[in-house]
Specification:
Elements: E1 4-9, H1 14-30, E2 34-39, H2 42-47, E3 55-58, E4 61-65, H3 71-78
Parallel strand pairs: 1-2
Antiparallel strand pairs: 1-3, 3-4
């Protein structure tokens, strides 16, 4: 199976931490191989055009910005849905 790169963008707010936790839970429950990266550098976040955090990127594509998707949404995104 392909290794998935998941990025959680956020400066450390509660929503950012919740999103990161849900991502790890989704990866574990799906049993997939994934690299989960927390991006906290504000310049990098701004360079991607993100004005509201948290943001979730999967394989370089923004999947959610400014909100925390549910666990089921994250699982769907990881399976290739939106």
């Amino acid at each position: 199976m392909k290794n998935v790169k998941i990025e959680v963008l956020g400066t450390g707010c509660l929503k950012c931490k919740r999103l990161e936790k849900l991502v790890h839970q989704a990866v574990e429950e799906l049993g997939i191989t994934a690299e989960v990266v927390k991006v906290e550098d504000i310049e990098e976040i701004m360079n991607r055009g993100i004005m509201i955090t948290p943001a979730l990127y999967i394989d370089g594509e923004a999947k959610a910005v400014g909100r925390v998707p549910t666990l089921d949404e994250i699982k769907s995104m990881l399976k290739g849905g939106n």
